[in-house]
Structure formats: structure tokens, C-alpha cells
Design a protein that fits this description.
Elements: H1 2-23, E1 29-34, E2 38-39, E3 44-50, E4 56-65, E5 68-74, E6 82-87, E7 90-96, E8 108-120, E9 125-137, E10 143-146, E11 152-154, E12 158-166, E13 171-176, E14 179-182, E15 184-185, E16 198-204, E17 215-220, E18 226-230, E19 234-236, E20 242-247, H2 249-261, H3 273-296, E21 316-319, E22 323-329, E23 332-339, E24 342-345, E25 351-353, E26 358-365, E27 371-378, E28 381-388, E29 390-391, E30 398-399, E31 404-407, E32 419-425, E33 428-430, H4 432-436, H5 438-451
Parallel strand pairs: 2-9, 11-19, 20-22
Antiparallel strand pairs: 1-3, 3-7, 4-5, 4-8, 6-7, 8-9, 10-12, 12-16, 13-14, 13-17, 15-16, 17-18, 21-24, 22-23, 24-32, 25-31, 26-27, 26-30, 27-28, 28-32, 29-31, 32-33
Helix pairs in contact: 2-3
Bound molecules: zinc ion.
């Protein structure tokens, strides 16, 4: 009898121990991945619950606002949510949470509450957890209104717009296809008058974007509400040249090992110069473009330049913007790239001048561009000088138009001494011909600033009437093939 009692006690202790142990198990882990902090007309709710496979007994999501609760999801009633098993016991729930999906949603604060339970000890015990996020419901859409007039853009070229975006904290700018160009407070362009919502944005229609690519000014709040405005009057097609670049062993020997030695982030066979060339012309070129975008993101929020940009004087144009190049080795086409700049040659080691006022963003080797200077001119505008033999400036230096910044050379992917020059809009190469043209600067930039009330036009050009054509008289052309990059 006593042993039976003993056994009973032992059993009770064991069961009790298991009960306690089961209660100490891990409850479901909950993560609200979206929305971040605001909900607008359209928004997504995304929740990830983690619990050992098959143990999740409930997952419940509600929205609390002004004392009322709106059910958004439960395992029994998933409504319009999509439920995905991510593996490792992770379950993802996604559903719309904006005003369009939840008509009861009102302007102001709200809380998303997620609760979940899982079974433990063969279903004898239940472990529960809860997570919540406070969000701001913003239903009034932002507004964007374009104030400047006569907007024309050339294929591969740039343009500027002045617009008003409200409320004050919206993200705004110009979107061309899927590329967004931020706007800057107009006071940085000399437009005083105290309207903090007035913005100036420079943007580009890239050489490789379709002529019909949608271009809009946009204003977007943190709840994802967006307003857009179309404003382009005309888009002009510009013919791009095709050219052939002969490559020989002497050229490969001179440029490839040097570029690869400066590019430890790529791998190429040391004993195959042609393969090395393809790596330099492809992967290194692509990495350089990324680096240029990173560097130019540090642009000043004000216009630093005045008037037209200067071109290397008395130079021969050996290659122009957006030439479609086929590289030929021993009679065979081995590669194809677009040349995104101008190649200008005069004599060896000629002085290279800053094309306009600005601040130095790069003054060192940059892949295929060899020794390279990049100057920020503010509001996303920059100029790039490649293949230099020497550099006379350093990062952070302020430079003035016409100041010597270095000497021409043949470093990087250069077949001979020349300057590779390009203009950049937020890191995207654009045709420099426009920026060399005083008429273009005067019409596209100065006129708009003056009409918007700029007290003294920051860029300093002469007034002129608007013109529907980008003239770009351009530099003297030369029939010879380019000097490579
Ligand atoms: Zn070039």
C-alpha cells in the first residue's frame, strides 16, 4: 500500500515537473515587419510568427483605433491575407492595411496588435505572446505643383524643374522611369521668399532609357501616399554614334594589368590579358559606375556653379557622348559598351581645368578612368575628369572655374593621352554638350530661377527667351575613332 502511494507521489511529481517545464517553453516569436510607422491610403501589413512546426494554434491581428477594434486576421478567418510557410516554423502573413482595404480607418494614431498561441506538452498547456506597433494614419495625400515653365529634354540630356511640394516633410523630386532624382530647397538656388516647400530638382533622360519613359514630379509621405504631376513639354531624340575600337596586344599589356592591380575586388586570370580586358571593361566599369553614384550622393544642397561649364580648349573631340562601341581584337568583335562622356585630346600632359566652381569629391584612381577627379557643383550636378597623369587637388578642396586640377594623361583604359570628360546628374552620366552651351544654361536654368523670384541668379548666365531646342553647338568633331574610355 505504501509503495503504491509512493508511486503515485512520484508520478505526480513527474507530471508536475513536465507541466512546469512545458510552461517554461518558448512562446511564439512575433515580428511586425510592415508598416514601419505610418499607414496611408494604400499600405501593406506584414507579420512573421515563429513557432516549432505545427504548434501554432492561433495567430490573431487587430487594429485598435479610438477605442474600437478591427479584426485583420486570424488563422480561422484569414480574410484577404496571404499566408506563407517560410520553413523552420516561420509563418508570414501579408494583407493590405490602407484606407482602401479598411474603410473604417481614420486619420490619427492607431495600434496594430498581434497575439499568438502555441501548444506545448502534447497540447496540455498553451504558450502565448503579444506584439504591438503604434502607427500614424495619414490619409490626406501630399500635393505637388510645378511652377517653372518650358521643360524640354534631350535623349541623354538633363533638365531642371521648380515645384512646390506639401506638406513640408514629404519626400519629393522627379521620377524618370524607375529612377528618382531628389529635389532641394529652392533657397539653395538663390530663390528667397521664405517658402520652404519650394524645391529645385535636376534630372536626366538617360541614353539607355526609352524616349517615352514617363517623367513626373512627385511628392510622397512616409505612409506611401503619393501625388505626381507631368510637366515635360517635349522630348528630343538625339542620334548616338556607333564606333569600332580596335584592341591590340600592346594596348592590353599597357592598360589591363594596371587596372586589375587597382581593382582587388574583381578576379581575373593573370595570364590571359584578353579575359582581363573583358573583366575591366565589364565588371570594373560597372563597379566604377556604382562608386560614382555613391560619391556624388554627397552633393551640396545649393548650386555651386555659375554660367556655362568650360571645355578643354582647342581640343580634338575623339569620341562623344553615348557612342555605341564595339571592341575588335584580331578581326573579331569581343565586347560592346557605351561611351558615356567626351574624349578630348590636345597635347600630352596638358593642364586640366575645373569646368566650373565646386568642391572635389574624388581625387584618386577610379578603375577604368585611371587617375580621376570628380567635382560636385551642387544639387546633384558633378563633372568627371578621367585618365589624368597627375592630380593637383584633394578631396574636400573648393575649386573655381578655370582652376588647374591636374594634367591630362593615359591612365586607366586609355589608348593615348586625352581627357575623358563627362557631366553627372546624381551620378548618372549626361551629355556635357548641354553644360558647355551658355544658351542652354541660360534658358534651362537661369530663366526658371529668375521667373521663380531668384534675387540674383546663382548660375550667373545671361537672360534669354525660352527655346524649344537644345542647341548645343558643341565642339569641333574629329573623324578618328575614340581613344577608348
Ligand atoms: Zn572616354
Amino acid at each position: 500500500m505504501r509503495w503504491l502511494l509512493g508511486l503515485l507521489v512520484l508520478c505526480l511529481v513527474a507530471v508536475g515537473g513536465l507541466w512546469v517545464a512545458a510552461g517554461r517553453g518558448t512562446p511564439p516569436a512575433l515580428e511586425i515587419t510592415k508598416p514601419d510607422r505610418a499607414v496611408g491610403q494604400k499600405a501593406d501589413l506584414e507579420v512573421v510568427a515563429t513557432s516549432p512546426a505545427g504548434t501554432l494554434t492561433n495567430l490573431n491581428i487587430v487594429l485598435e483605433q479610438h477605442g474600437t477594434e478591427t479584426a485583420l486576421f486570424s488563422l480561422a478567418d484569414p480574410q484577404e491575407a496571404s499566408v506563407t510557410d517560410l520553413g523552420d516554423g516561420r509563418t508570414k502573413v501579408v494583407r493590405p492595411i490602407g484606407k482602401t482595404a479598411i474603410p473604417a480607418l481614420q486619420e490619427g494614431p492607431a495600434t496594430i496588435v498581434v497575439s499568438a498561441t502555441r501548444k506545448s506538452l502534447l497540447g496540455l498547456r498553451t504558450l502565448s505572446s503579444r506584439a504591438s506597433r503604434d502607427v500614424q494614419v495619414r490619409l490626406a495625400p501630399p500635393a505637388v505643383a510645378v511652377l517653372s515653365t518650358h521643360h524640354y529634354i534631350n535623349h541623354g540630356g538633363a533638365e531642371m524643374v521648380i515645384y512646390r511640394a506639401t506638406p513640408a516633410d514629404v519626400t519629393s523630386g522627379v521620377r524618370v522611369g524607375d529612377i528618382e532624382y531628389p529635389g532641394f530647397p529652392a533657397v539653395g538656388a538663390g530663390i528667397t521668399g521664405g517658402d520652404p516647400n519650394l524645391k529645385v530638382a535636376f534630372f536626366a533622360l538617360l541614353h539607355n532609357q526609352d524616349l517615352r519613359t514617363p517623367i513626373v514630379a512627385f511628392a510622397r509621405d512616409d505612409a506611401g501616399n503619393e501625388a505626381t504631376a507631368s510637366f515635360i513639354d517635349n522630348v528630343f531624340e538625339k542620334p548616338f554614334k556607333k564606333s569600332q575600337i580596335p584592341i591590340d596586344d600592346r594596348f592590353l599589356q599597357r592598360v589591363v594589368p594596371d587596372i586589375l592591380a587597382h581593382s582587388p575586388e574583381v578576379s581575373a586570370p593573370a595570364d590571359d590579358l584578353l579575359k582581363g580586358f573583358l573583366v575591366a571593361n565589364g565588371e570594373v566599369r560597372r563597379l566604377n559606375a556604382e562608386k560614382i553614384t555613391q560619391l556624388t550622393a554627397a552633393t551640396a544642397p545649393a548650386l555651386l556653379f555659375k554660367g556655362p561649364f568650360i571645355q578643354l580648349g582647342n581640343s580634338k573631340v575623339e569620341a562623344s557622348f553615348a557612342d555605341d562601341r564595339t571592341y575588335v581584337y584580331e578581326g573579331k568583335a569581343i565586347d560592346r559598351q557605351t561611351h558615356l562622356g567626351f574624349d578630348l585630346a590636345r597635347t600630352a600632359h596638358v593642364e586640366i581645368l575645373a569646368a566650373n566652381d565646386g568642391k572635389v569629391l574624388n581625387a584618386s584612381w577610379l578603375g577604368i578612368y585611371g587617375n580621376c577627379v570628380i567635382i560636385d557643383h551642387g544639387m546633384g550636378i558633378a563633372s568627371l575628369y578621367g585618365h589624368l597623369s597627375s592630380i593637383d587637388v584633394k578631396v574636400g578642396d573648393s575649386v573655381t572655374r578655370g582652376q588647374v586640377i591636374g594634367r591630362s594623361g593615359a591612365t586607366g583604359m586609355a589608348g593615348g593621352d586625352h581627357l575623358h570628360f563627362t557631366m553627372l546628374v546624381h551620378g548618372q552620366p549626361v551629355n556635357p554638350v548641354e553644360w558647355w552651351d551658355s544658351h542652354w544654361i541660360s534658358d534651362r536654368i537661369d530663366r526658371k530661377l529668375r521667373e521663380a523670384g531668384a534675387s540674383s541668379v546663382a548660375t550667373g548666365g545671361q537672360p534669354s527667351r525660352p527655346s524649344p531646342r537644345a542647341t548645343a553647338g558643341g565642339p569641333r568633331r574629329n573623324k578618328r575613332a575614340g581613344r577608348v574610355q
